C-alpha cells in the first residue's frame, strides 16, 4: 500500500509529501510528532519489505547505520518496520543532489569539483574507519545542503552523502542470489569481475564522480547494455580530459584498475586538497562528447622470464550462450542476476599414435614447461643449500593473526551487540572487542558476557578486561547459572550510539575455523543464558526484558489521577511483583527503568481515549476527564514505542 499524506509512519512520524524516488524506494518528507521537526524517510519498495531475511539484515544493521556521524554524511535517525512497510528515517537535506547540479550546469569548475569530491572522500574515510562500505557512490547519492545549512564558503561544506548501508544490506542479498548490485557507470573493475566491493571500490566510484563533475559524462558511458558499459571498467582506459597534469595524475590514480593501485579515501582527499591553489582560477570545461572508441587497458599477464610467451589458443564460446543481457545502460542502481558459466564437459581424445609427449605438445607450451622445469630445479638446489643441516632445528614461524566477527539480533530494548576477535596464535591470546549499541533510548549495564574455554570440557580461560568494571557472574545473586559468565558493569550506551569494551582471553585455538567456532559458541552461550525461561528476577534487564505490559484498574473515576503500572515481561513471563514504574510515582525510579530507558526521561504516556484523558506536561501523570466506557492509555518506554493498556472505563462518582 502506497503512503498517503498525513498517514502515520510508526508511532513517531507523519507523511507530509513525496520528494523523490530511487532504485530502493520512495523518499518522503515526514514530520516527527515528538518535536515537530522535519525528516526524510526512504520507504523501501514492497518487494524489499516482504523479504524477511532482508528486513532482518536491516534491523541487525541498524546500529551501523545510526552510529555513523560525520559532517558530510546524512545521519540515519530511525528505522521503522511496520507491517509490509520498511522505512529509514534520515536528516532532511533541502538543497538537491549533485545530479541536479550537473543537470542544471553541465560541468563544474575544477576548484568546485575538487572541493566537492574531497568532501565525499572525507565521508567515505569516516565510514571505512568503522567498517562500512557505501557500494553505490554517484551524484544522485550526494546531496547538497543549502547555504545557510552549509555554514561556510567552501563548496565542500555543503556535501551530505546519503544511503550508507542500504547498498550494503542489498549486497548481502546478492550473495545469496548470485546477482550484482551497483550502477554500471560507477562499478569498479573488481565488482564487475568478482562481485566484490570494498573501500577501494568506493574510492574508484568517487574517481568516476570527479570525472563526471569535470566533463559532464562518466568515462565509460556509451552505446550498449549495462553489461557493455560495466565491462569497459575492466577492459578500457578512461579517455584523457583537458585538465592540468597534476589533476589528471590524481584522477588517474583514483581510477586504477587494481584496488591496490588506488589510495585510501583519506589519502585521496588530501591529494585533492593539495590541488586547490593550482585549479583556483580554471574555468569549467565544455561538456565532453563521447569518444568514437575506447583504448584497451593494459592487463598484465603472469610470465616466466626467459621464455617467449606463445599466443593464446582461441576459445570458441557456444553459439547458444550469449553475453548476459542486463538491459539498456543507465545511471540507476541495478540488482540483477549474473548467469553462471558452466565448465564444458571434457572431450574424449581420439587414440593417437605412440609418440613422445614433447612432439604432441604445442611448441609454446613445451617451452613454457621447460622453463618451469629450470625454475623448479633451481628452487630444489636452493633448498638443498639453504636447508638446516641434520640436528639443526628449523625455526618455527607463527601463523598469521586470525580474525572473526559476529553480530546478535537487536533485542526489544534496542540493544544490539556485535563481537569481533583478533587471535594471535603465537601468544595464544584472543583480543575480543564487544560493541553495545542503543536505538531509541540510553541503555545501562550490567551486561552478561560468556567467554568459554576452547573446548566444552576446558576450564574457563583467564580474561583481562578494559573499558569497563567487570566481575564474575554470581548465580546466587543473578539467578543465572552459566559457566564462564562475566558481568560487565559501568557501561552506559547513549541513544543511537555505541560503546565498546575489550577482553583479552588466553586460548589455544587452531586456525580460522576454530576461532569462528569459539566466537559463535561464546555468543550462543550468552544468548541462551539471558533467554532462559526458568530464570526469574530482574538481573541483566537490558538483555532479558522481552516486553512491557501497561496495566490500569478496570474502572476509574473522572477527575482523578489514573493509576498506571508498567510491568516487565521476562522470558519467564510478566512480573507483577517488581514493576518498572507506577504512575503517579512515589520515590526514585527503579534500577530496571534506569537501565532500559534512562529513568523517567524515557517514559511518556498519551491519551488513547479521544480526549477523555489528559496527560501532564512531563508525560508521566494521566488524569481521567470525562465519562467514557472504553478507554486505553498509550505509552512509550525507552525503545518500546507503541505500548497500549487493556481497555478500562471512566465513570462519575
Automatic annotation (TrEMBL):
Under PANTHER family, the record lists: MITOGEN-ACTIVATED PROTEIN KINASE KINASE KINASE 20-RELATED (PTHR43289), SERINE_THREONINE-PROTEIN KINASE NEKL-3 (PTHR43289:SF6)
Question: What name is this protein filed under?
Answer: non-specific serine/threonine protein kinase
Gene Ontology MF terms: ATP binding; protein serine/threonine kinase activity
Q: Which keywords label this protein?
A: ATP-binding, Kinase, Nucleotide-binding, Serine/threonine-protein kinase, Transferase
User: What InterPro entries does the record tag this protein with?
Assistant: Kinase-like_dom_sf (IPR011009), Prot_kinase_dom (IPR000719)
Stored Gene3D superfamilies: Phosphorylase Kinase, domain 1 (3.30.200.20), Transferase(Phosphotransferase) domain 1 (1.10.510.10)
Enzyme class per UniProt: transferase
Q: Which PROSITE patterns match?
A: PROTEIN_KINASE_DOM
Q: Which CDD domains match?
A: STKc_PknB_like (cd14014)
Annotated Protein kinase domain ranges read 13-275
Query: What's the EC number here?
Result: 2.7.11.1
Q: Where is this region: Disordered?
A: 308-327, 334-358
Amino acid at each position: 500500500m502506497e503512503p498517503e499524506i498525513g498517514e502515520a509512519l510508526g508511532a513517531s512520524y507523519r507523511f507530509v509529501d513525496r520528494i523523490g524516488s530511487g532504485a530502493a524506494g520512495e523518499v518522503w518528507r515526514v514530520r516527527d510528532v515528538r518535536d515537530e521537526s522535519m525528516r526524510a524517510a526512504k520507504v523501501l519498495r514492497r518487494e524489499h519489505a516482504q523479504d524477511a531475511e532482508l528486513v532482518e539484515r536491516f534491523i541487525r544493521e541498524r546500529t551501523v547505520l545510526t552510529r555513523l556521524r560525520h559532517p558530510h554524511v546524512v545521519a540515519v535517525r530511525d528505522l521503522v518496520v511496520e507491517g509490509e512497510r520498511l522505512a529509514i528515517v534520515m536528516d532532511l537535506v533541502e538543497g538537491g543532489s549533485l545530479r541536479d547540479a550537473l543537470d542544471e550546469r553541465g560541468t563544474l569548475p575544477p576548484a568546485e569539483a575538487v572541493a566537492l569530491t574531497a568532501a565525499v572522500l572525507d565521508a567515505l574515510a569516516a565510514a571505512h574507519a568503522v567498517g562500512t562500505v557505501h557500494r553505490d557512490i554517484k551524484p544522485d547519492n550526494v546531496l547538497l545542503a543549502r547555504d545557510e545549512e552549509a555554514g561556510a564558503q567552501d563548496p565542500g561544506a555543503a556535501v551530505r552523502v546519503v544511503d550508507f548501508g542500504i547498498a550494503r544490506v542489498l549486497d548481502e542479498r546478492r550473495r545469496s542470489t548470485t546477482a550484482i548490485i551497483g550502477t554500471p557507470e560507477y562499478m569498479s573493475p573488481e565488482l564487475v569481475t568478482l562481485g566484490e566491493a570494498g573501500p577501494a571500490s568506493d574510492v574508484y566510484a568517487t574517481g568516476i564522480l570527479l570525472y563526471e563533475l569535470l566533463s559532464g559524462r562518466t568515462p565509460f558511458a556509451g552505446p550498449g547494455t549495462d553489461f557493455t558499459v560495466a565491462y569497459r571498467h575492466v577492459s578500457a582506459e578512461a579517455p584523457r580530459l583537458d585538465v592540468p597534469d597534476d589533476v589528471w595524475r590524481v584522477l588517474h590514480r583514483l581510477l586504477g584498475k587494481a584496488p591496490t593501485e588506488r589510495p585510501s579515501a583519506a589519502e585521496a582527499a588530501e591529494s585533492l586538497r593539495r590541488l586547490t591553489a593550482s585549479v583556483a582560477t580554471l574555468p569549467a570545461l565544455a561538456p565532453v562528447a563521447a569518444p568514437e572508441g575506447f583504448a584497451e587497458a593494459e592487463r598484465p599477464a603472469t610470465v616466466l622470464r626467459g621464455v617467449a610467451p606463445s599466443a593464446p589458443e582461441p576459445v570458441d564460446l557456444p553459439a547458444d550462450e550469449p553475453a548476459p543481457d542486463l538491459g539498456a545502460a543507465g545511471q540507476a542502481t541495478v540488482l540483477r542476476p549474473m548467469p553462471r558459466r558452466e565448465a564444458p564437459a571434457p572431450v574424449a581424445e581420439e587414440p593417437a599414435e605412440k609418440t613422445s609427449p614433447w612432439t604432441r605438445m604445442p611448441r609454446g607450451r613445451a617451452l613454457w614447461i621447460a622453463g618451469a622445469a629450470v625454475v623448479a630445479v633451481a628452487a630444489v638446489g636452493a633448498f638443498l643449500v639453504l636447508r638446516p643441516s641434520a640436528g639443526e632445528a628449523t625455526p618455527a614461524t607463527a601463523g598469521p593473526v586470525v580474525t572473526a566477527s559476529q553480530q546478535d539480533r537487536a533485542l526489544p530494548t534496542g540493544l544490539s551487540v556485535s563481537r569481533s576477535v583478533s587471535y594471535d596464535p603465537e601468544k595464544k591470546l584472543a583480543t575480543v572487542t564487544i560493541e553495545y549499541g542503543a536505538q531509541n533510548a540510553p541503555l545501562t549495564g550490567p551486561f552478561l558476557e560468556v567467554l568459554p574455554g576452547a573446548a566444552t570440557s576446558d576450564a574457563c580461560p583467564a580474561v583481562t578486561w578494559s573499558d569497563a568494571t567487570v566481575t564474575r557472574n554470581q548465580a546466587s545473586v543473578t539467578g543465572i547459572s552459566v559457566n564462564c559468565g562475566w558481568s560487565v558493569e559501568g557501561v552506559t550506551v547513549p541513544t543511537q550510539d555505541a560503546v565498546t569494551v575489550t577482553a583479552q582471553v588466553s586460548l589455544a585455538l587452531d586456525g580460522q575455523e576454530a576461532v569462528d567456532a569459539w566466537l559463535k559458541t561464546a555468543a550462543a552461550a550468552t544468548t541462551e543464558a539471558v533467554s532462559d525461561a526458568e530464570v526469574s528476577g530482574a538481573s541483566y534487564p537490558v538483555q532479558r526484558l522481552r516486553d512491557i505490559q501497561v496495566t490500569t484498574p478496570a474502572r476509574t473515576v473522572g477527575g482523578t489521577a489514573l493509576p498506571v503500572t508498567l510491568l516487565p515481561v521476562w522470558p519467564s513471563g510478566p512480573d507483577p511483583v517488581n514493576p518498572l514504574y507506577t504512575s503517579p510515582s512515589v520515590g526514585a525510579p527503579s534500577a530496571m527503568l534506569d537501565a532500559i530507558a534512562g529513568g523517567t526521561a524515557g517514559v511518556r504516556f498519551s491519551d488513547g481515549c479521544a480526549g477523555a484523558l489528559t496527560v501532564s506536561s512531563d508525560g508521566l501523570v494521566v488524569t481521567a476527564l470525562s465519562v467514557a466506557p472504553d478507554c486505553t492509555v498509550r505509552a512509550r518506554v525507552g525503545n518500546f514505542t507503541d505500548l497500549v493498556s487493556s481497555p478500562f472505563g471512566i465513570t462519575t462518582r
